[in-house]
Amino acid sequence: MTSGEIMEDREKRAYEFLDGLGIKYERYTHEAVMTIAAAEDIEKKIGLKICKNLFLSTRHGSEFYLLTMDGSKKFNTGKVSKQIGVPRMTFADESHMLEYLDIHPGSVSPLGLMNDKENRVKFLLDSDILDREVIAVHPCVNTATLVIGLKDFIEKVLPACGHDYTAVKVD
User: Fold this and answer.
1) Which residue among 59, 118, 145, 162 is buried most deeply as judged by most CB within 10 Å?
2) R_g of the chain computed on alpha carbons
3) d(Cα 82, Cα 131) in Å, to the nearest integer?
4) Reported pTM
5) Are 13 and 103 in contact (CB under 8 A)?
């Protein structure tokens, strides 16, 4: 971090959370990116595919899900809904995203699960990501990307958040 850099509280909390767990990560700062397509330059810089993160709910808004998937894939609501046995999912609204994960659209990240103390959000992970050694995600803001070991993420970060994951096949 440069001496004049201003950091949002939610980003600071993400680093404090990871540091408190002894998680090693590489941090890359960049201009704000709102979509996975806009992240192509960042992917080239870090040499990794950045994950696409979608905040979803059932049509009636009674159940909420965070899906982390390969950024190059297209999301098919029907296929994923069927795998987890829920009615067709839709994108959840920003108010629930802020309430449960303390993040805004464009900054969705599995690190937001650290803010979901009541386990209102179920975490879904694209099974293809399980083949990776590292995962690249936002630290709850879209002006930085962190590269974290996948093993650390699954074995340390998720349990510290009080969450587990369900692997789904995203085509």
Assistant:
1) 145
2) 15
3) 23
4) 0.90
5) no
Taking the C-alpha atoms of residue 88 and residue 102, their distance in angstroms, rounded to an integer, is 25
Q: Find the mean pLDDT for residues 142-165.
A: 95
For residue 81, what pLDDT is reported? 93
Q: Distance between CA atoms of 12 and 103, rounded to whole angstroms?
A: 13
**Which pairing describes strands 121-126 and 64-70: parallel, antiparallel, or unpaired?**
parallel
Helix (H, G, I), strand (E, B) or coil at 2: coil
Cα separation values, 166 from 10, 55, 130, 133, Å: 25, 15, 11, 18
Neighbours of 22 (CB within 10 A): 8
Task: Classify residue 56 as left (phi > 0), alpha (psi -120 to 50) or beta.
Answer: beta
Helix (H) or strand (E) holding 16: helix 9-20
Contact 163, 113 (CB under 8 A): yes
For 102-132, the pLDDT digits (tens) are 999 889 999 999 999 999 999 999 999 999 9
Mean pLDDT of the chain: 90
Instruction: Categorize the per-residue pLDDT at 171 as very low, low, confident or very high, splitting at 50, 70 and 90.
Output: confident
Amino acid at 158: L
User: Are the beta carbons of 146 and 136 closer than 8 angstroms?
Assistant: yes
